[in-house]
Sequence to fold (348 residues):
Amino acid sequence: MRAAIFRKPGQRLELGSIDDPTPGPGELVLKVEACGICGSDLHISDNHDGSGGMPPLKPDSVMGHEFCGEIVAIGSGVDNGLKEGMRVASLPTIGCGRCAPCLTGDVKRCRDARGIGLGDVPGGYAQYVRVGAAESLRLPEHFGKGDGALIEPLAVGLRAAVRARLQPGEHALIAGAGPVGLATAIWCRHFGARHVVVSDLNANRAETAARFGATEAIDASKENVIERYKQVAGARPDIVFDCVGVPGSMQLAIDYAGFDSRVVIVGVCMHEDRIMPVKPVTKELDLIFAYCYLRQEFGLCIDMLDQGRIEASGLITDRVGFDGFADAFEALKTPNTQVKVLLEPDRA
Ligand SMILES: [Zn+2]
Ligand SMILES: [Zn+2]
Fold:
């Protein structure tokens, strides 16, 4: 099958051919309908030295962990009702299916967890992908092409809002208007935050946020974020989400936060960073970290989209086939206004 193959750090992805996957016990093979490009893939593809505690990706790996597709093969022992021809979105992790984390939906905690698109199992930048049946959730028939690839980033935002223990009427500030920040804004609005203010150094990105649940956008390149926030909301935020994840962004989030408030770290910073502890101590902040999602959170994203209670398809700003894929991937490494770019393997 065709796949966009990672050869080595710093090198463009290469269009090539690898063996078709076959499903093991408890597994499925999907014909990939769409796979989103994630910021972490961009980072991993340039990770020479294993910085940030992440080992470099093995040569000849296939990335891609935000995908959906149609079931084309089913391994032995799959008895959860999934059938060939059904469209599903899958968590990018295959668990053992028997341990407590697997049974409670927290498959990332499974001791035998294998990541899809991160070196263990080839990912969704390919025509086909092997997934866990227990980690696959059926998509409604009416979902538009590629919508299922948004479930993973939406689930990241949902997890952030859940971890934040967001209450109706609270005031949120979301730093960073990339896909994770926008997904977080969607859920803050959904759960009844009164002010959902998104800031970004890129004015266009901040503006985009207004279409995704933000009640106000701040151009952080021109405006003083917290002064503007106080003008809008009348006080400092109850919750600050750091959806940037670069050195210094955690301290900024702490600086923005009000007394007795919460700071939720969602962006994954892979470099050493420092904070000034006196700030969170004297403010008595709750520092909260959010990572991935539970299977049931994946399911909630599907149901809320299905029922039209969240709107997300506008997050898709471009779609490419294999031919334009390596270029599209590289282009995302420099400043741009894209939100989510999808690979559609069957696109010419
Ligand atoms: Zn991702
Ligand atoms: Zn397990």
Notes: The domain at 165-289 is CATH 3.40.50.720 (Rossmann fold). The CA atoms of residues 195 and 281 lie 25 Å apart. The pocket of zinc ion (ligand 2) is lined by residues 95-96, 98-99, 101-102, 110, 112 (CB under 6 Å).
